[in-house]
Amino acid sequence: MTTLVHGTDTLTRDALTVLQPGFVGTTAPDWLLRRIGEGLSSVGLFGRNIVSPEQLAALTAQLRAERDDVLVAIDEEGGDVTRLEVKQGSSFPGNYALGSVDDVELTRAVARELGRRLAACGVDLNWAPSADVNSNAENPVIGVRSFGPDPDLVARHTVAYVDGLQGVGVAACTKHFPGHGDTNVDSHDALPRIDVDLATLHARELVPFRAAVAAGTKAVMSAHILLSALDPHRPATLSPQILTGLLRQELGFEGLIVTDGMEMQAVAATYGIERGSVLAIAAGADAICVGGGLCDEDTVLQLRDALVTAVRTGELPEERLADAAARVRALAAWTQAHRARGAESVSGAAVQEGTAPGADIGLVAARRALKVTRGERPYTPVTSAPYVASFTPVANFAVGDETPWGVAAELERLLPGTETGSYADSSVDALLAAAGERRIVAVVRDAHRHAWMTEALDALVAARPDTVVVEMGLNEAEPRGALHIATHGAARVCGRAAAEAVVGTGV
Predict the structure, then answer these.
(1) Distances (CA, A) of 281 to 64, 73, 298, 324
(2) Are strands 371-374 and 483-486 parallel, antiparallel or unpaired?
(3) Which DSSP state fits 41?
(4) Count of other CB atoms within 10 angstroms of residue 312
């Protein structure tokens, strides 16, 4: 086990402590282990770091061989945003599906089982759940990641999700404070702006975060969004008025404040990651998330040195950096204590129903989340191998384009010989030619946001009235087709539930 170098500067150690960097590879590189030995207290994992539960458990064990209290964080929302199952698709439906069912006990059970799987692999901080109220149906980055457009519904399911995760020792990081739902810009690409009054913010955006704080969420993640009513000059991540004034003082949050990824263009394009990180800590953030894109040692050293220099020049108060580092260590101690208790209680421990290893709670939830609308004619289930036409929009950065989605794989399992094609324009001539005499299953994602997709669906249903339409995004467009199936998300289990409905076993 590496120990801290004798005489290591406390300031430098604190600067390392507040960083949550990523890295490349399925084992920890030497540079990362060395920096953990010098004081780095957190590591963020992404899909590129994971190939199996066994490999992930070995990786987290390797990290903790260097430092037993290191925080291992992940962006595992379930649903469309998965890192545990990045190559397969998630075993759990996402927030929109859970919100559509509106059974808080189901949400708690899903979060508990997801948390149990994370804990079993040595992950103890989850950058989830999303507590954003999806009040803007045109939102390009939140959408199905939200429980829905109603603040009270989002609040009760956020609380249930936090309870589920933290009940098995995985710290929840409720995001994206103070609410990313009413935006039509992705903060990965540019700075979103919300220009509503304070009364609206308190009645809508802040409702779930107040509930999460009251429920004891261990962490909150800030959003790179400009809310002019709170701070007309700086995005929330860099705003003392929002992080310290609103979150700390008004809402009374005492846990860890984590930034969203600092390399996202909403901050990086204007401030740069070094100055952005200094301003974030000064504003009240405690941990700097970086590594989704910039994931090397140079990035860690640049941010460490920027924080040290800011303290030495008086731009960043030393006590603010020390307070941030102390909050990181406090959360690490909480997770370490839970790991120890979990290890002691594994043998002979009672397990809550629906959360045992191998429990199919994700599929149960996905089936309950389906909304099936029949067309005017009697529906005839698909009994022979169909043609699946996937209308494919550009994936947002949070979801990524490496996670499979749709129903083709699940239909192939039920109806061997199923064929599929991907389409990205309004013409259906090639689709109809490829399908031939097969039944067509059209799969869409947020059809209401893409005019070309709506045009293609209209043309397809006019030509082939027996077409089945599966909507795997927000269920905003009018149902069309012989059977319209809204899954409320594109997780693998949502595809399975939809496939069952297509063939008639779930209708």
Answers:
(1) 26, 19, 20, 7
(2) antiparallel
(3) -
(4) 11
* Single-letter amino acid code for the residue at 113: E
Residues annotated as part of the active site: 188, 260
Please say whether the beta carbons of 472 and 502 come within 8 A: no
Cβ atoms of 442 and 391 closer than 8 Å: yes
CB contact at 8 A, 500 and 414: yes
CA neighbours closer than 13 Å in the CB half-sphere of residue 183: 27
Instruction: Please give the Cα distance from 375 to 440 (Å, whole number).
Output: 15
Residue 195 neighbours by CB under 8 Å, 6+ apart:
228, 229
Q: One digit per residue, pLDDT tens: the chain, 507 residues? A: 333 333 348 999 999 999 999 999 999 999 999 999 999 999 999 999 999 999 999 999 999 999 999 999 999 999 999 999 988 999 999 999 999 999 999 999 999 999 999 999 999 999 999 999 998 877 777 889 999 999 999 999 999 999 999 999 999 999 999 988 777 665 666 678 888 899 999 999 999 999 999 999 999 999 988 998 999 999 999 999 999 999 999 999 999 999 998 988 878 888 999 999 999 999 999 999 998 888 999 999 999 999 999 999 999 999 999 999 999 999 999 999 988 887 655 433 333 333 343 459 999 999 999 999 998 888 999 999 999 999 987 665 555 567 778 899 999 999 999 999 999 888 899 999 999 999 999 999 999 989 999 999 999 999 999 999 999 999 999 999 999 999 999 999 999 999 999 999 865
Q: What is the dihedral of CA 431, 434, 439, 440, to 10 degrees?
A: -30
pTM exceeding the 0.70 threshold for the entire prediction: yes
Phi-psi group of 56: left, alpha or beta (phi > 0 → left; psi -120 to 50 → alpha; rest → beta) = alpha
- Residue showing tokens 């040290």: 308
Grouping H, G, I as helix, E, B as strand and the rest as coil, residue 387 is strand
Question: How deeply is 456 buried, as exposed, middle or buried, from its count of CB atoms within 10 A (0-12, 13-18, 19+)?
Answer: buried
- Cα(48)–Cα(30) distance, integer angstroms: 17
